[in-house]
TrEMBL record:
Keywords: Signal. It comes from Mucilaginibacter angelicae. The keyword Isomerase does not apply. This is Carboxypeptidase-like regulatory domain-containing protein. Residues 1-20 form the signal peptide. PROSITE patterns: PROKAR_LIPOPROTEIN. Pfam families: CarbopepD_reg_2.
Length: 227
């Protein structure tokens, strides 16, 4: 009986160890810097697991060897990790300029619908008065963070669709890097885009251009990206 108990204990230990090894942990940094990036969306393309990095850039996600993890965040070029082991990972994201973002935007592309792609996030994010787990469990808290992230992404995509490089340069004479700098400095908020029509946006761009011209030369440029 004691022998059988030892075998059972060993099997349980191995099962727990194997289960623990299906979690990959790591930290996301900005490439070339020690800046840790929070709210990076991490997803497993195979098992549909997802998470966000915390305020210190740390993440933890359930995955398997042979799976691909995708890391994406506003202002950064998306990166992928092919899982070969379960050691701690250091992910470095490249900052993304407006010019790169413009290439990724297409009026014909079907908009990302988080409700359709990840309905489980919205289910888990619901709060029920008589269910403490819906308030305090890590799963529920993570789901609410993801829901907030999806909402922000949707709003930023809408701004990108309206505040385009072609539209802005049709109103003001800036081109090239100067245009990119202007669009970064005076990028309108989602609330503004939502509550104003085309003519109002054109007025905003013209007024912003006058402010841009009044800026000292060193205030019109953005910090250079590190290679």
């Amino acid at each position: 009986m004691k022998y059988q108990y030892l075998i059972l204990s060993a099997l349980l230990f191995l099962a727990c160890t194997a289960n623990a090894q299906t979690v990959v942990k790591g930290t996301v940094f900005e490439l070339g810097k020690n800046n840790k990036v929070s709210d990076v969306f991490v997803r497993d393309n195979q098992n549909r697991q997802m998470t966000l990095t915390d305020s210190k850039g740390n993440f933890s996600i359930r995955t398997e060897t042979g799976h691909t993890l995708v890391f994406s965040a506003p202002g950064y070029v998306s990166d992928t990790l092919y899982v070969t082991d379960f050691t701690n990972k250091k992910i470095e994201l490249v900052t993304q300029t407006i010019a790169l973002r413009q290439v990724n935007i297409s009026a014909k592309r079907e908009a990302f619908d988080a409700h359709k792609e990840y309905p489980e996030v919205y289910t888990r994010s619901k709060v029920y008065p008589l269910s403490p787990t819906s308030w305090f469990s890590k799963e529920a808290k993570d789901a609410r963070r993801l829901k907030k992230y999806f909402k922000h992404e949707e709003e930023e995509r809408h701004v990108d669709e309206v505040f385009t490089m072609n539209y802005v340069q049709s109103i003001i004479p800036l081109r090239g890097q100067e245009l990119e700098n202007f669009m970064t400095i005076y990028r309108p908020s989602y609330a503004f885009i939502k509550n104003n029509n085309g003519p109002s946006l054109a007025v905003y761009i013209n007024d912003s251009y006058k402010k841009y011209q009044a800026l000292p030369a060193d205030k019109r440029t953005l910090p250079a990206l590190k290679e």
